[in-house]
């Protein structure tokens, strides 16, 4: 895949840099703990099956066309449901939704799978992917490309519908803890 991308971009990695070793996984994780980022719940529906997870690996790609990218571990059920359905909703959490974040992150004992949707109020926009009511923003998307990257899939998505609030605090994750950030 990397070779194909390099050919498409007509780009060759710097040979000297390619030989340098990477940092350890622990060093990478420790450094990333200091990267404050908004917390989202990524959801999808395939028929009656719903899945979701708490994520911080979401990024805007372009505004025109409206696209974003979401990274999801290949080993979670949501990854398969997203691939099967071709749709995803990115629910950007409000500060008071920390409990929902914990439920979808597996931080509440005994709450997994469909039981996660017992936390928060859920509806739908266009795609059928579960949409969290009261979130700061919802991005209802269709998946247009899937990239295989090590332990994760990168889902490149086109945004079909949005819903947002103008009030509330943002829920962020920093140094191993959820925190609230006033707007």
Give a quick precis of the structure.
This protein is α+β, with helices and mostly antiparallel strands and 183 residues long. It is 20% helix and 43% strand.
Protein architecture, described:
It is globular, with a radius of gyration of 17 Å. A 7-stranded antiparallel beta sheet has the order 3-2-6-9-10-5-4, sandwiched between helices. The N and C termini lie far apart (40 Å). A hairpin with a 2-residue loop joins β4 (58-63) and β5 (66-73). It is 20% helix and 43% strand. With 183 residues, it is an alpha+beta fold. The chain has helices at 2-9, 15-18, 25-32, 77-85, 98-104, and strands at residues 37-38, 40-46, 49-55, 58-63, 66-73, 87-92, 122-124, 130-132, 137-149, 152-164, 170-174, 177-181. The chain is built from 5 helices and 12 strands.
Write the layout of secondary structure elements.
Elements: H1 2-9, H2 15-18, H3 25-32, E1 37-38, E2 40-46, E3 49-55, E4 58-63, E5 66-73, H4 77-85, E6 87-92, H5 98-104, E7 122-124, E8 130-132, E9 137-149, E10 152-164, E11 170-174, E12 177-181
Spans of at least 5 consecutive residues whose pLDDT stays below 50 are none
How far is it from the N-terminal to the C-terminal residue, by CA? 40 Å
Helix-strand pattern: HHHEEEEEHEHEEEEEE
Shape: globular
Spatial strand sequence of the major β-sheet: 3-2-6-9-10-5-4
Number of helical runs? 5
């Amino acid at each position: 895949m990397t070779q194909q991308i390099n050919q498409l971009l007509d780009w060759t990695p710097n040979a000297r840099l390619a030989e340098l070793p990477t940092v350890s996984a622990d060093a990478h994780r420790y450094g990333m703990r200091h990267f404050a980022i908004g917390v989202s719940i990524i959801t999808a529906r395939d028929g009656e099956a719903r899945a979701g997870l708490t994520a911080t690996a979401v990024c805007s790609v372009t505004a025109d066309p409206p696209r974003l990218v979401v990274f999801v571990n290949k080993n979670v059920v949501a990854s398969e449901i997203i691939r099967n359905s071709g749709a995803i909703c990115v629910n950007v959490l409000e500060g008071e939704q920390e409990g929902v974040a914990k439920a979808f992150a597996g931080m509440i004992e005994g709450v997994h799978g469909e039981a996660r949707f017992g936390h928060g109020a859920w509806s739908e926009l266009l795609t059928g992917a579960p949409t969290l009511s009261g979130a700061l923003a919802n991005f209802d998307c269709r998946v247009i490309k899937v990239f295989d990257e090590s332990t994760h899939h990168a889902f490149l998505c086109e945004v079909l519908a949005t819903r947002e609030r103008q009030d509330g605090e943002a829920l962020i994750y920093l140094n191993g803890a959820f925190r609230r950030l006033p707007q």
